[in-house]
Structures are given as C-alpha cells and as structure tokens.
Amino acid sequence: MDQIENKIVSIIVPVYNVCQFVDHCIQSIVDQTYSAFELILVDDGSTDSSGEICDTWAQKDGRISVIHQANGGLSAARNAGLDAAKGDYIAFIDSDDFVTENYIESLVDAIFVSDADMAFCDINSSKMAESKNTFDKNTILTARECRQWLTNPISREYVIMVVSWCKLYKREIFDSIRFKDGIYHEDEFLINDILFSIDKAIFVPEKNYIYRNNEDSITGKENAGNLYHLHAIDAYVHRIQMALDHDEKDFAALTFKWALLKMTHFYKEGDDAMKEKVRQMYMPIYKKYEHLLTSKQRLKYILFEKAPNIFCKLFI
C-alpha cells in the first residue's frame, strides 16, 4: 500500500468560461480519498470569473497550481498541463464535470495491481446508450480488445474508450504523444495514438466520472451544425490508416464504413455550407480506401456521390 501511496497523480483540468461549474469540479477533486496528487488548472483565457476561482483554490491548497494563458483551445490547455505535470500518472477532468471521491484511488489501484498502461472507468451520463455487455469486476483488456470498443460509434463502449477523461495513464504514454492543436474532436485523434502504443488497459466498471450535459460546450446542441465537427472524419481517416499500417484490415474496414456513414449523416442534417464541405471530403476518402469494401458495398456508397439526397432517403 505504501508503494501505491507514493505514486503522484497529475490531474489536468482545462478551464474556459465555466464559472458556474468549476468550483464543484475542483471540490470533487480536493475531496478524493487518494491525496497524493497535483492539480493543474489551466485557465485558457477565460473572460468570466473562472480564473479567479482557480486562483482562490490555489491559495487554499498547496497541491493546486494555476496556469493562465491566452485562449488557445482545449488541446493547447491540456498540452500546457502535460508540459507542467510532474506525476507518475496523468488524468484529465473537464471543468464542467466532476468525479466521485474514490475516482483516483480506484484507477491508481487498478493500474498498480495489473501493471496496465491505462485504467478507465464507466461514465455517469444521461446522454449515453446503455451497454449490451455486463462487467461485474475490473477487466484487463489487450490493446487490440480496446480497439474493438471503437468499432461502433453509437455504443456506450465507444464513448467510454474514445474520451481522454475517465482515464488514468502512466505518464510515459505522453513522452511522445500530445493533443493536436487547432482542431476539434482532439480525443478521437489521441485515442488512436494511445491504442496503437500501449500493451494493455484495465476497465473499472464503476460510474465514477460524472459527465455534465453542458449545452454551451462544443458538443452541445447549439454547436451541432458547426463545420468543425468534420474534424471527427479526419480522426477516422487517421484511425483507418493506423489500422492498415498495423495490418488490421477488418478494423480499418469497419472504421471506413462508419466514416462514410458519418459524412452522409452530416450532409443530411447540415446546412448548405456543411453539405458542400462533405461533398468535397467524400470522394477523396472513398477513392483512397474503397478497396476495403465489398463490391456490393462499393455500389451502395458510390451512390452518395451521384445522388446524395437519394442515398440519404434510402440509408440515413
């Protein structure tokens, strides 16, 4: 037990204009049963009182430090936290979310016992689909098994696996990996890099991470039609190529089909600008990876290029 307690966890919380949530988030971290942590709050150019709230907490608790920087986006904030982190493990918590009091302890213990590269837990969220799988105990997964959780984007398993929060990582993972600056859906890219670099992970089935439905966030309803959501398609293409590079053709093929369907969904639901951008993206991606499809599937997906509205009526 002493060896576990000597492990320092660097908890990185990016903060931007969340004054109504950030105090609750920080309080849930300070209340952790596992006390050997440093909390790095990265104020990413907030224009409300979020930065001041962070400074107040830092004055009260010596484990807390605050980085104030010009607004650079979520990736830049998390990377700044990574650059400052000194812990043995890394955790990310979004500032509009919060965690149970044994969140960190359960993940540290899981990694320590299993020697996994990464531990992750279930999520408490009203927005997520229920799982078809039942886990009644901590479960070790190979990296390939983790990648299988990414084969169905509408599943609970996909969300749990793809997000950077709800996880604890050995810090060595980030010796050569960073979030991609200047893009959205950065978690989709990050998990590709991680799952092709680790050996194994461990899943803790408790819902110890509480996701708050914040409609002002980039994934909220108000931003649903923004073109930046097409960055998720770029992440899918990245995943397809990494799978092929590692000789995982079946995984690449499944990801490719979901990428095509996701683009057609964006087209159907989007405005004129979205429709135009999707049509620009579609064929270059289709032509590069059409060899992953069967002849029947190629006939189906080429229809979108010829008659996108008919495709959407038939398949979306």
Query: Helix/strand-derived class?
Result: alpha/beta
Strand content: 15-25%
Task: Give the averaged pLDDT, no decimals.
Answer: 94
- The ordered string of helix (H) and strand (E) elements is HEHEHEHEEHEEHHEHEHHHHH
Shape: globular
Whole-angstrom Rg: 20 Å
The level of helicity is: 40-55%
> Could you give the distance between the termini?
53 Å
Number of strands: 9
Low-pLDDT sequence parts: none
The biggest beta sheet reads: 9 strands, mixed
What does this structure look like?
By secondary structure, the protein is of the alpha/beta class. The chain is built from 13 helices and nine strands. Strands 1, 2, 3, 4, 5, 6, 7, 8 and 9 form a nine-stranded mixed sheet that branches. Helix 8 runs parallel beside helix 9 and helix 12 packs across helix 13. The protein is globular and about 65 Å long. The termini are far apart.
